DNA sequence: ACGATTTGGTAAAACGTTTTATTTATTTAG
DNA sequence: CTAAATAAATAAAACGTTTTACCAAATCGT
């Protein structure tokens, strides 16, 4: 069966024309008569001609592929993001090669290097500590790059992410509105700027609400701790913070860990402890009594990232107004932040 | 800054050798003296030479890219799968281009066509109804293909998936062991063979346990129903099946829908209704009292798929013994199937 | 009617590799 | 010492496109 793929040369032969003519017709470039055009188009159609992307890529230097480097394609946040990114990119005729770094610096570096082998036309990357230089060197080499979910302060690498500071600030505000005053936070020790911004938002909100700055009520989970250890750590933390009546988890990973911990401790939500977590997902909407979350605008982030990347790819310039794009999040209020019964 | 990428030709010039020599050294092919080899290697190293994948691909016809076509990269099951697949493929120097079909036939067809443009060396596909011919034609054209999560009966396209029949059978058995006798099922109307196999397993188990065949206790959710409608449908179903004391959801999507429905109806699990769902995930482990699930061996499936695909790619033959690979699942028993209090 | 422009078309180079066939120099066998 | 084998290196073709530069024929303006 194995019909060998047909090339532009074959079409030229079949139509008694030249390679150039065929190429022109297929790309609508030169000026070729209606007649010949039609004949060529017909033959191409009939034989199911598809251009050889390798040849095109070699000749033009354009692969129509973009590289996506995320922490873990398996996670709910990045998974959803990856999906939207693929769908949007497809509209521009681009395909996506992805890889997960698992927050492993070496893997990140390797991936950037791999993809740089003239394989991709641009990058969407979730930055991590230590990757600055590698990414900057991409930018210096005029490779289109957009960061998502994080950024490198003080550089001009375009990035699009949720407004982490405001989001965390709003979370605290929500607790306060519902009458909670001893608000703790559980975050992770990954050196990620986004987590730092969330911490800052939390602290600023505490201050603005004239709540005692509770730096004591903050737990940082070390980055190399596994899920079970994390649960134990959160349990210990909650146990120790006797007066804490609300807790803010800065990632959905931490949030589900937290739920497990709270469940293990047999505490009631929100009576014993009110809860807000970053990143909405099914667990939080389903878990009784419903967990209030900060829902990231996944679609908007992905769409903007692609748009900015495409603009770079097409214009070879980067729009200075699009370097720092922070998109507001949405607070989804559920049972876990019901107004506190006045003591 | 923009140092232009160095080519094999540049290296030849820099070392006073020929293109061929450089290529040979870099690929360890011809026989070149230690001396010259070292010089070339040094220069290549120093200048950060990376081969142009397009040129290599054009010349060799090998892209070192494999195409992954799944229902939705965003889902927990396929997301996890995608992650493992990428990690395993990477070990063989392969990268992954993915796309989500969202169970849309046209998108599936388009994707297969896109990727066929000499862009990928092989495919991992979750099959869907209507895609048989397109996939068969890949196989006929000697493209390496492995199906995951489903298969086409009566074809010899290699596939690896969980043992759906046995898994469903075991679920029913688990209910029975715990004393449940009126076991319903909620499944989807997607025309997917894997769902059909699950239904068959369920029915066989009912029969073997001498339970009345409860074809009345089966709900099929139409494939175009959205989540809210689905929840309503499940609620209506549960409401109508007065005597039903246990229900089996054939996908995790249906399972979470089911939990929502049960929650809305204010039924207790497992006292009012015992529950088992296909596909383990965080929701099920966390949701009180813990939902018993059929955990698919994601890693094993992904690993086997890659192995089989690589074997095809490398040998250009397909190992007849590896065409139908069904891997056992693991039943994770939780609170939702606690032994029934005797009536 | 004659140079100038337009129209329709093509030859050939280039992109960066891999690989076959060949050449030259050196070693080995007898 | 010569023929044969081997070692080291290379020239050139090929992969399938895109694109520049060019050519011949037809059309134009005056």
Report, as a whole number of angstroms, the end-to-end distance of chain A.
80 Å
Mean pLDDT across every amino acid position of chain A: 94
Q: Helical amount among residues of chain A, as a percent range? A: 40-55%
Strand order of the largest sheet of chain A: 2-1-3-4-5-11
Could you walk me through the main structural features you see in this protein, from its secondary elements to its overall organization?
2 copies of one chain form a homodimer. Chain A is of the alpha/beta class. Chain A is built from 13 helices and 12 strands. Chain A has helices at residues 8-15, 19-27, 34-46, 53-60, 76-91, 105-116, 132-140, 164-177, 193-208, 227-240, 252-264, 282-286, 298-315; strands at residues 65-70, 95-100, 122-125, 145-148, 159-162, 183-189, 218-222, 246-249, 274-278, 292-295, 324-327, 330-332. In chain A, strands 2-1-3-4-5-11 form a 6-stranded parallel beta sheet, sandwiched between helices. Chain A has a 6-stranded mixed beta sheet with strand order 7-6-8-9-10-12, sandwiched between helices. In chain A, strand 8 (246-249), helix 11 (252-264) and strand 9 (274-278) form a beta-alpha-beta unit. In chain A, helix 10 (227-240) crosses helix 11. The N and C termini of chain A lie far apart (80 Å). The model of chain A has no long low-confidence stretch (mean pLDDT 94). Strand 2 of chain A pairs antiparallel with strand 2 (95-100) of chain B, so a sheet runs across the interface. The first copy, chain A, binds a DNA duplex (30 and 30 nucleotides) through helix 2 and helix 4.
